Amino acid sequence: MKLKKYAGNPILSPLAENEWESLVTCNPGVFYDNGTFYMLYRAAGNDKEHVIRFGLAASKDGFHFERFSELPVFSPSKDSFDSGCVEDARIVKFDDEYYVTYAYRPFPPGQYWNFGHDEVLCPTGGDHTPLALKNNLGNSGLAITKDFVHFRRLGRITSPVLDDRDVILFPEKIKGKYWMLHRPKQYIGAKYGVKFPSIWIKSSDDLLNWENQESRLLLKGVPGTWEEKIGGSTPPLRTDSGWFVLYHGVENGGLGYYRVGAVLLDIDNPLRVIAKTPDFIMEPEYEYEINGYYKGCVFPTGNVILDGTLYVYYGGADKYVALATCSINELIQSMKKI
């Protein structure tokens, strides 16, 4: 089974008149609440440093989005841990506040498509410069908001010596614990049982206390397939069959096309994978997915289930925002039990 891509894609494109989003609009976090779809999208202008921010758009039908402002709603801080870039929001809600996990760097990464694979700009440092600064490591932070306009940064939630992104919170406690999916890039090799970066899971008693909690391997890639390197994509959605989670897979050890699969996790024990799509359910096909700043990439970061329909919001080629849909029940029924 494959997701159906919206004929009106891309649903959000770079806007030349706004310098801060004139080059890139992609990888949107999306949350549906009280009749409105809220979208925090990654945005950047044509500056050599490639400073990345969040813009806000909203929709009543999930297809047609309007920008909230001519200005970004969330930007890198001036002199703190996330002063280089903020990107790839994933959104859940606890009580009356939205919790946003996001990737960041202490310095802007530069226009990475002009560099080698996985290369970013790094500052000049001395012998005592911390690794996070010296290597401009990608890391993950947590922010909260009630209106997607005013934010409070809660700080770093992953290790300062790891490149740890694709950090996603479960939207509710499970057996009294908070749960997190993450993808530490350095967790590879014989010690970790995987050749390429994979999806790990951990639990905690507190939404800021993750660093010293045990992390367990949840899902690893399959050598020689479309999903050699993998990472979590969207916040888990509760269904009658289990926690539904989209993930991305990359062929050729992380050097090829990005595609999308899905897993179901046990409602009471998210360490247990109970079903998995037998093949990818979405791949790059169209111009807006193939010709951009990563050629051949579909990268979901937001999903909503509404009236039996799954809405999947994704970045196309690191340049556009696009949408795909399907019947959630049909998709779950097509998944192979493990």
Features:
mainly beta; 3 helices; about 350 residues
What is the topological layout?
Layout: E1 4-5, E2 24-33, E3 36-44, E4 52-59, E5 66-67, E6 85-94, E7 97-105, H1 131-134, E8 139-145, E9 151-156, E10 164-169, E11 178-184, E12 199-204, E13 215-219, E14 229-232, E15 237-239, E16 242-250, E17 258-265, E18 273-276, H2 287-290, E19 298-306, E20 309-316, E21 320-327, H3 328-334, E22 336-337
Antiparallel strand pairs: 1-21, 2-3, 3-4, 4-5, 6-7, 7-8, 8-9, 10-11, 11-12, 12-13, 14-16, 15-16, 16-17, 17-18, 18-22, 19-20, 20-21
Question: What can you see in these coordinates?
Answer:
The chain is 4% helix and 42% strand. The protein has 338 residues and is mainly beta. It has a single domain (4-337), classed as Glycosyl hydrolase domain, family 43 (Tachylectin-2, Chain A, 5 Propeller). The radius of gyration is 18 Å and the shape is globular. The chain starts with a strand and ends with a strand.
**Global Rg:** 18 Å
Number of separate strands: 22
Low-confidence stretches: none
Percent of residues in beta strands: 35-45%
The CATH architecture category equals: 5 Propeller
Mean pLDDT: 97
Most strands sheet? 6 strands, antiparallel
- Helix tally equals 3
Q: Count up the domains.
A: 1
| Oligomerization category of the chains in this entry | single chain
Q: What coarse outline follows from CA principal-axis ratios? A: globular
Structural class call reads mainly beta
**CATH overall fold name:** Tachylectin-2, Chain A
